[in-house]
Amino acid sequence: MKITDIACHVLVADDVDPGLTSSAQDSLLVVVTTDEGLEGYGESDLNPWIGRACIEASGTHTMGLGMAELLKGKDPRNVEALWDHVYTMTAMNGRRGALIHALGAVEMALRDLAGKIAGEPLWKLLGEPRPTPLVPYASLQPAGSSFEAYRDALCESAENAKKLGFKAVKAECTMAGPYAHDGMNESYDRHTEVVAAVRRTLGPDMTLMVDVQYLWRDAETAWSVLRDWEEFDLYFVETPLWPDFLDEHARLAAWAPFRIASGEWLSTRWEFEDLIERGRIGVVQPDVGRVGGVGEARAVCEMAAERNLPVVPHCWKTGVSLSATAHLAFATPGIAFVEFLPPQLCIEKLRRELATEDLVLENGEILPPTRPGLGVEINWDAVRAYGRP
Questions:
Q1: How many CB atoms lie within 10 A of CB 272?
Q2: Are the C-beta atoms of 284 and 272 separated by less than 8 Å?
Q3: CB neighbour list of residue 380: distance below 8 Å, 6 or more residues apart
Q4: Are 322 and 341 in contact (CB under 8 A)?
Q5: Boundaries of domain holding 320
Q6: How far is 267 from 245, CA to CA, in rounded Å?
Q7: Are residues 310 and 237 part of one domain?
Q8: How far from each other are the two terminal CA atoms of the chain, in whole angstroms?
């Protein structure tokens, strides 16, 4: 069996708003095809034009080869060896960042193929099944450009997640900073008010996580606000600080009464080693596509397990990435929660329309998927409708 083609589809929703910070408005869908007619699907969370260039660009010398040209003609079944080969021979094109994010989409597609070749769901190929149920959390992104509208929309989404049977939610609370929602610039006290309102809506029994999306630049300023959040019984606070400020992460982790979570932007296990060892984070958050694929995500999970740290993968794309993350989790006991975005809670068109995943939410838990590979079905009408040159 040989790889005959690697197709990259740049997808952008027809209602895209460049002023928003939601990367679910676009996608890079990668399709790896074999000479036996099998297709594997992958996705990554980066600018899709940049990702396509990383995959399709021709090489110029022996340590800066092209990703697609390295893989065409190869047997797709030894995924780890192919990843190592591409990582090595594209090293001068980029050992981190965009190239690794794009490689993550390709690797995801190869994993999908591996399951289809074996006739088994991917999680069964990754190791022993987890002994505990897989619990998802609902990611809540509010609407509205005023404080009151933002707060009320977030609380309404929290109530809807509760009605859908979720046991855990993650609330975005970003009304200032680089991810400021809809141009808002509210005080830190207002952020505390929002978290308090969401906790009241959920009640005391549901798990609450809060994402502040790089709101602060130093630990002291972050702690001046977060010290008032202990009463809300948070599982973690996500990305309070810029990811490169590792010493500030360590300072904040020493003060905070709850876990500090980070890692969504990182690529490869080696970047995570710095964040864990020097940054002293309490929850590890690889994104399967961005970190470099399922294999790199597994390596990060193993690193976290050695240090008794929980893993809660990041996933803010369509059902393709969502499925890859779930399959990883079904073979990884150390993954505490996974991000789950059912259509009822999605506002982005690509999330609702691009892919149908083999994931069922029942009694607040995700049931093990049964279809071969990732178990994803692509809506090719959506690919045609939202495809860009």
A1: 26
A2: yes
A3: none
A4: yes
A5: 125-380
A6: 16
A7: yes
A8: 30
- 164 and 55 in a single domain? The answer is no
Distance CA 51, CA 55 (A): 6
- Residue carrying the six token digits 């190791």: 127
Q: How far apart are CA 349 and CA 355, in angstroms?
A: 11
pLDDT for position 24: 85
Type and span of the H or E element at 160: helix 147-163
Whole-number pLDDT of residue 343:
73
Query: Looking at the structure, do residues 111 and 130 belong to the same domain, yes or no?
Result: no
- What amino acid is encoded at 146 in this protein? S
| Count of domains observed in the chain | 2
The per-residue pLDDT for range 156-209, each reduced to its tens digit, is 999 999 999 999 999 999 999 999 988 899 999 999 999 999 999 999 999 999
Do residues 168 and 308 share a domain? Answer: yes
pLDDT over threshold 80, residue 342: no
Tell whether 155 and 100 lie within a shared domain.
Answer: no
pLDDT class of 19 with cuts at 50, 70, 90: confident
Task: Tell me the pLDDT tens digit for each residue of 63-72.
Answer: 999 999 999 9
pLDDT at 259: 98
Q: Are 76 and 221 contained in the same domain?
A: no
CATH number of the domain within which 159 lies: 3.20.20.120
Q: Do both 192 and 167 map to the same domain?
A: yes
Residues 6+ apart with CB under 8 A from 9: 27, 28, 29, 30, 31, 48, 383, 387
Residues whose CB falls within 8 Å of the CB of residue 248, separated by 6 or more in sequence, listed in order: 217, 218, 219, 241
